[in-house]
Amino acid sequence: MALERNSKGTSVAAATLLWPWTTSLAAGVIGGAGFALMNLSINIFAVGLGSLAAGAFWFALVGGAVAAARKSGDRRALRQVGRNPWGFAMVPALIGGGGVALFNLLMLNIAGAIFGGLGAAAMIFVVVGVVAAVAGGGKR
Questions:
Q1: Which of 48, 81, 106, 133 suits 2 as a labelling partner, its CA being 20 to 30 A distant?
Q2: In 3D, which of 138, 123, 129 has the Cα closest to residue 86?
């Protein structure tokens, strides 16, 4: 992916260049397994989908925050995070909110899925945005 000036996909390219895949996958697995272990008394279908939703949430939150706080990597991507931290935070928020909404749609009704996804996206957006604004971008 190329990082070009004034491109609408620049934040997406910066996120994919800086994304810590191993760390975020581990966080997603641990978050999903933790949800499953805490909710063993309800039916297996709800536990499975809830675990996937929790895994998607933690994958996006930890991956976005670690990518935003990273000091090494592609210098153009780091500069983009420092220049536009809230635009960068939209990428993990959309990933996490979309994952939570998708799995909640299979478990709940459409309204529960929409509001669950929006709530998760808002939390991820705020946390990753603050991390990117405070610690992101390396040298500015």
A1: 133
A2: 129
